Amino acid sequence: MESLKEMSAPSMPARESSADPLGSAPGFQPYIPDKATIPELTLPALTLGTLLGIVFGASSLYLFLKVGMTVSASIPIAVLSTTIFRALSKAFGSRRATILENNIVQTAGSAGESIAFGVGATMPALMILGYDMEWSRVMLVSVLGGLLGILMMIPLRRPFIVKQHGTLVYPEGTACAKILEAGEQGGASARMVFTGFGLAFVFKVLMDALKLWNNAPSKLIEGINGYKNAVISGEADPALLGVGYIIGTRTACVMVAGGILSALVLTPAISFFGQGLKEAIPPGTIPIDQMGPGDVFKSYVRYIGAGAVATAGIISLIRALPLIFSSVVGGLRDLGSRGEGADGSGRTQRDLPFAVVLLGCLALVAAIASSHLIPTNLAGRIAGACMILLFGFLFVTVSSRLTGEIGSSSNPISGMTIATLLMTCLIFVILGWVGPEYRVTALSIAAIVCIASSNGGTTSQDLKTGYLIGATPRSQQIAIVVGAVTSALIIGGTLLWLNSVYSIETSKAEYLPKVAALESELTGQTETHDGQEYRVARVAIPRDGVLPGRYLVDNSLKFVVLDDPGIGGRVNERDDGTKVDKFNPPQPALFAVIIDGIMTGKLPWALVLLGAGIAIVMYLAGVSALAFAVGVYLPLATTVPIFIGGMIRALVERRHRMTAEESDSSPAVLMASGLIAGGSLAGILLATLEAPIGFIQSAKKGLDMTDKVGPLLKSLPAGWQDIIPSVVAFGLVSLTLLAVGMGGGRGESSKAAIDLPESRPDV
User: Fold this and answer.
1) How many angstroms separate the CA atoms of 572 and 150, rounded?
2) Are the C-beta atoms of 115 and 454 separated by less than 8 Å?
3) What percentage of the chain exceeds 70 in pLDDT?
4) Of residues 731, 763, 732, 735, the one with CA closest to residue 639
5) Which residue from 191, 264, 744, 757 has the highest number of Cβ atoms inside 10 Å of its Cβ?
6) Burial of 91 (0-12, 13-18, 19+ CB in 10 A)
7) How far is Cα 288 from Cα 318, in angstroms, rounded to an integer?
8) Please, what is the Cα angle at 13 between 7 and 14, to 5 degrees?
């Protein structure tokens, strides 16, 4: 989709050579010559890369579930690798790691972020559609998608990376090569990364574990006749502050503008026109007159936001069609003329054998066709596997070439996923495959293609980095396979864990259908709740008064309990009054809307089309329709800290009058990266406190200092006692980031010429 922020493409001066070494681009000589033999694919490098990949992959998943976007991990990992190996060398008197070992670390570590994006964007849609998010399905999709993207990128390395060197820039890969070279020469300190990490981690512990201040203060606007349910809110999250700084002022402003439309225009407007109505208006389940701000948002505004996101994605995809077409044609042409040297004997030209690619792809197709991943008959499984292979090759080719031309920040991964989903659903409808199992099949196909195309783009950037510094492609390909598999397992487990601890079982009548369950909706399973045994019903096809989801019903088929998921759920309070912050990224809801709209036709199209109109208006006005649409979908509380981060960057750039490259190389950018990692990992660890286990809940109560802090807040003005402490605490973190930016300028990290990639744009 269209970029959240225009990417400046850093260039790297070519090293002149009189020869054309082993089929490389004419006149190019890598940093490490082809004939040089130095340590590269070593156990320490692979281990550190895998560990950092797990850390950044898990934090990327948490960040994606919060705001629907991720931040590229390659450059922070490269900086950390250089610093960690340097520190270990000094501590133990061992040799320093080579530049090629540091490259292996960032290669293995970078896979986690791209897999986190694909898994987080697709798998939660299962629960929105009314199905279980099974462990085996999540793991299979994660691993198969990651491996498919890598395998299909291997034969494209030579035509894209080598033969078109100088034409396809690969901005992030080129920037990462600069980092590694600077580290070889003594630059690229990771001090700011660690500082941001520690600051964000401690902040989250004090806020979410000790409860010293409110994590999302809000203020209801009152006293205006007819202006109801308008709330100004902001989340005190240092990770979101870091996101705002990295994506920049323009995008941050557009996103918060969408949030303002959602919270201060759409929600009050729906509340105003719904006054006096005594009947519920679908998809709402209670009258609008009885709804609070959150109810209006979840029942109506979220569908408007999903329609806006879908339309913005389609607009972006249409705009990219010329590039996509040329990418496919050029990729097939170049692939057909790989020529001699593709498997040449020179170290810098050694790929994994093409036979490995073919056998690997066939093995993946066989695994898909023989597994429960596609829950249909044998013909359907084989057809689904072939569609995955076809769409996977198409969009990995497109992703790789587009990444080279416009960078990962403008790579339309969500647009490609939408296209895959649309084509798959339309094919199924034509064939008459419209049963519930085919909805899962369509989503599984799109999920694997999404992860494959995302990881294919990341692999391209890694191989470009390796090409510039003189790495061995085969070693990099092995490293990213190891990194992809290990990261996929951890990311899948993290997704299931976060969903589990934030799930809510509620017996409140407002969330339960008034009609009886159907026999066809029973799963045959039973479950005990509050000492009573109930039958499990799963509603996959929405019907009047019954929303998709997992329910417990009694013997008379009366709905008794709703098991609301932690991701994409609609209940934010347990029956005992405990508040729970659910994850609601826009992409899963978007993909569920597409599947429901095409395969069942049961969708609140009026709300979706309202969102489509908003996206079209923004596009015609010259505003980033995608960033605005995401702002409409996300709560205002989420976009406000992103906006503050963007404004801090504006002040820093104004103070130092830096170019785009100088701004991206400032210490504040590294600190922002640390804020994201520290805040996200703290959020994952603190989620443990939500587990319904006796000793964990006792520990949670023991850490809670609300009773001790409460008396101290009574001196504050009424109505502001939950707001002022949060504003002060978050303000201190914001001022720290501002001080680093103002004082750093073209500081130490600038020696590394760090061009930190922005967030993925298709959020």
Assistant:
1) 39
2) yes
3) 88
4) 763
5) 757
6) exposed
7) 37
8) 120
**Cβ atoms of residues 418 and 314 within 8 Å:** yes
Give the closest residue to 4 by CA, choosing from 647, 669, 634, 759. Answer: 759
3-state secondary structure 167-229: CECCHHHHHHHHHHHHHHCCCCCCHHHHHHHHHHHHHHHHHHHCCCCCCCCEEECCCCCCCCC
Same domain, 441 and 526: no
Could you tell me if 326 and 458 lie in one domain?
yes
538 torsion bin: left (phi>0), alpha (psi -120 to 50), beta (else): beta
Question: Of the candidates 231, 282, 236, 239, which has an alpha carbon nearest to the alpha carbon of residue 259?
Answer: 231
Task: Find out whether 147 and 481 touch, Cβ atoms under 8 Å.
Answer: yes
Q: Residue 233 in 3-state DSSP?
A: strand
Domain containing 136 equals 21-188+316-500
- Domain annotation covers residue 264: yes
pTM, rounded to two decimals: 0.80
**Is the preceding omega at residue 283 within 30 degrees of 0, hence cis?**
yes
- Give the C-alpha distances (Å, rounded to integers) separating 505 from 5, 8, 552: 41, 48, 9
| Shared domain check, 166 and 70 | yes
SS (H, E, C) 691-743: CCCHHHHHHHHHHCCHHHHHHHHCCCCCCCCCCHHHHHHHHHHHHHHHHHHHH
How many other CB atoms are there within 10 angstroms of residue 340's CB atom? 8
Strand, helix or coil at 107? helix
Q: Is 243 within 8 Å of 642 (Cβ atoms)?
A: yes
Q: What is the pLDDT of residues 546-592, one digit of tens each?
A: 888 999 999 999 999 999 999 988 888 888 888 888 898 888 988 88
Tell me the helix, strand and coil percentages in the chain, rounded to 5. Answer: 65, 5, 30
| Co-location of 666 and 735 in the same domain | yes
Domain end position, chosen among 485, 500, 515: 500
More confident residue, 188 or 457: 457
Task: Give the whole-angstrom CA distance, residue 399 versus residue 145.
Answer: 14
For residue 15, is it within any domain? no
Residue 9 in any domain: the answer is no
d(CA 687, CA 498): 7
Dist. CA 4–CA 407, nearest whole Å: 12
Q: Which of 531, 564, 597 is the last residue of a domain?
A: 564
Residue 284 and residue 355 in one domain: no
Same domain, 537 and 607: no
Query: Do both 431 and 325 map to the same domain?
Result: yes
Residues 660 and 734 in one domain: yes
Q: How many Å apart are CA 348 and CA 342, to the nearest integer?
A: 10
Instruction: Estimate the crossing angle of helix 413-431 against helix 378-406, to 10 degrees.
Output: 160
Q: Report whether pLDDT(331) > 60.
A: no
Residue 460: strand pairing partners:
none
Evaluate if residue 179 carries a pLDDT over 60.
yes
The rounded distance, in Å, linking the Cα atoms of 302 and 635 is: 9
Terminal C-alpha separation, the chain: 8
Transcribe 610-675 into DSSP letters: HHHHHHHHHHHTTS-HHHHHHHHHS-HHHHHHHHHHHHHHHHHHHHHT--HHHHHTSHHHHHHHHH
- Single-letter amino acid, residue 360: G
Pairing outcome for strands 549-553 and 218-220: unpaired
Q: Which amino acid is at 752?
A: A
Whether residue 478 is contained in a domain is answered as yes
Structurally, the chain folds into a number of domains equal to 3
Q: What whole-number distance in Å separates Cα of residue 34 and Cα of residue 291?
A: 68
> Distance (Å, rounded) from C-alpha 423 to C-alpha 420?
5
With bands split at pLDDT 50, 70 and 90, how would you rate the model's confidence at 8?
very low
